[in-house]
Prior knowledge:
Strands 20, 21, 22, 24, 25, 26, 27, 28, 29, 30, 31 and 32 form a 12-stranded antiparallel sheet that branches. Strands 8, 11, 12, 13, 17, 18, 19 and 23 form an 8-stranded mixed sheet that branches. The longest helix is centred in the middle third of the chain and has 25 residues, at 344-368. 28% of the residues lie in helices and 30% in strands. The protein is built from 14 helices and 32 strands. It has 3 domains: 13-213, 2-Layer Sandwich (Nucleotidyltransferase, domain 5), CATH 3.30.420; 228-405, 2-Layer Sandwich (Nucleotidyltransferase, domain 5), CATH 3.30.420; 432-612, no CATH class. A hairpin with a 2-residue loop joins strand 15 and strand 16 (339-343). By secondary structure, the protein is an alpha+beta fold.
Amino acid sequence: MFKRKPFSGTQQGLVLAIDIGTTYSGCSFRYLTVNSVLDPGVVPEIKGVTSFPAQPPSGASKIPSVLYYDSVGVLRAVGAETLLESIIERAEDEQWTKVEWFKLHLRPKSGKTAALRIHQQILALPLAPDKSIIQVYADFLRYLFSCCRTFIEERMLSGGVGFWESVQDRIIFVLSHPNGWEGPQQNSMRRAAVLAGLITENPEDRDRLHFVTEGEASLHFCINNRLTVKKDEGIIVVDAGGGTIDLSAYSVSDPDTNTFEEIAPSECCFSGSIFVTEEARSYFEDKLYGTRFEEDIPRITECFDQTTKLQFKDSDESYHVKFGGLRDREPDLDIRSGQMKIAGLTMARFFQPSIDTISEAIVDQRRDARKVITTVLLVGGFAASPWMFSKLKDTFQQLGLSIYRPDTNVNKAVSDGGVSFYLDHFVGFRMARCSYGIHSSHIYESWNPEHQRRGFFTSLDDRTLVKDSFSLILKKGIQITQAQEFRQSFQYTTSYRLRNISENILAYQGIDNNPSWIDVDPGAYLKIHANKPSLVSISTFQRCIPLLAQLLPMFQRLLRRFLHLKTRQASCITIHRLNFDIVLLFGLTELQAQIAWKENGLEKRSPAKIVYEQEL
């Protein structure tokens, strides 16, 4: 088992990893973990919050990801409070809005899904009146943060209140998210964290908030729970949650330092356990339509989700959903004594779309991996399903793969792993999930058939060019270190003074391994454009969500002064040129950017703050 080194800092602090799940959040084991009180010279131990409001005295490690808002958008109940009969009754009487599965409102538009029809139904679920998804996310973050504070202040043996007051302005936050979420989703989560009061918008606060993918957090959890991987052996970590299934492939790059490398692009599938529940709901709606039990469908579905779904392990047996009393009886509908009987083969059909999607994703990652995959590690709440585990095990053992679950509670993977991500940094190499480049014009080559087909044009400075070419900055599948830089030069040539500039950086998300032209598969590009001196932006054709990189005053002054500006007279037209580089760093879990230019022969740099323009 990995042994963590003592914390070497000189100032006491606190790390909080928060995992908001589609169905459940909080809890020390998986969702919300007050993970580590960092005392100088003491080996950090990952701990968890095990008590939340409205829970029984014995407590629990997780709460439902559910909120109730009243008719004017005031938050009335959160988490375990929403399970209280008094709250449910009041919510019905006063017509409160129940908000659940809200996390999926942040998701990218693309991604594999178990059932498109059900997925669309999920996204159609209501939010609170006059509330955006960021505001809902912030309300839930604020509640979890308050629970953390109460837990720490009450459970520390001495000085809990004083400790919190001493570290509250230095708390390190780690927020986890599905593998498929990138800049736009991270920015929404950052805005929610500011709105919730976790951090401020001050630049010095920016580095107190970190993001980790659920796949990478799960790897850290497994390493801390006796995972051993031989050199050149590949593994796939599958985090099976309520909404998403996250797959990440790794191998050991340096056994001495316990450093891992990502060996295939990570994957995110929308096929978690809620899709099983929704398949069951559709079955209940068809079976009970027009009967006296039709109004009981929400209750039957809820009981199925909380009990029957978790018990299913044998398709040859029958299972029961207990939802009513002894008088609830209708043999023709398989209902007796308040219980509805479901055949095992019918139960299996509820699970099959999710199992098929997960199996396909594992096969794809195994095929794309740089090293031979020998093992699949299954973690997350959905991993506890005996039926899903047995079906995956049977399928992949025939293909020479071993499938395991850690021998500890698989619900704790992401929350514990989020803290380990910050403390241990096991992943030294990550893999680019898409190709990045710029929309450019190449010098026309008369011998090139593709150039001949497209034709040419003459630029202001009399160059013969062909348009719509794609110049790569970073190719999909390339391994990236944390400090590795990728850059592309920009040149603006215009007859106007450079009060406004415009350039594009594109993220290609299609299937072409070597994209060369942006008018081929145009829907697969993420477009980035800038149209002000203080802005350089990135966006996508596929999602049309621009990403704006705000330049610091140093570079703004450069534009205002027109340094490195060359002019020439041609046909009484003054031609202006400006040359600079955009430097992108992809090795961290959050994209970073810099601006570089030459001044008196020396390279100068200015950091760029990445800001995403949302559709939300």
